[in-house]
Amino acid sequence: MSNIVLDNVLAEKFLEFVNIVRKLRKECPWDREQTHQSLRRCLLEESYEVLEAIDNNDIEELRKELGDLFLQVVFHGVMAEEDNKFSLYEVMTGEIDKLVSRHPHVFGDVKVSGSEEVKENWEKLKKYEGRKSVLDGIPKELPALFRAFRVQEKAAKVGFDWKEQKPVYDKILEEIGELKDNITKSAGHEKIEDEFGDVLFSIVNYARFMKINPEDALRRTIEKFTYRFRKIEDFAGLNNIRLESMTLGEMDVIWNKAKKTGN
Question: What is the pLDDT confidence band of residue 96, given thresholds at 50, 70 and 90?
Answer without folding.
Answer: very high
